[in-house]
């Protein structure tokens, strides 16, 4: 009788162990499936981020080119302003010379005309 009870206990333990192993196998498969899905999601996000970074690098490159062009434009404008200032200075000098000449002509005409 003891052996029969013991055999029955062992069979129940075997059944319980078999169910636990089956559940564990299912849990491990679920964990692997979830891990694979998680890895796929992470890889997809990394791919999107790499694309975004590549786009940002291109934007930075374009902006650097724009800044370089703007710096050149500012330099050109400064040169143009310098030239314009010199031209204005020359015009002022010319106007002064013309004014002096007109004063001499006027003085001469006043002297010669009664």
UniProtKB/TrEMBL annotation:
Q: Note the Gene3D superfamilies from the entry.
A: 1.20.5.190, 6-Phosphogluconate Dehydrogenase, domain 3
- The parts of the chain that form a coiled coil are 7-101
Supply the Pfam families for this chain. ZapB
Superkingdom of origin:
Bacteria
Sorted alphabetically, the keyword list is:
Coiled coil
User: What SUPFAM superfamilies does the annotation carry?
Assistant: Influenza hemagglutinin (stalk)
Q: What is this protein called?
A: Archaellum component FlaC
This chain's source organism reads Spirosoma utsteinense
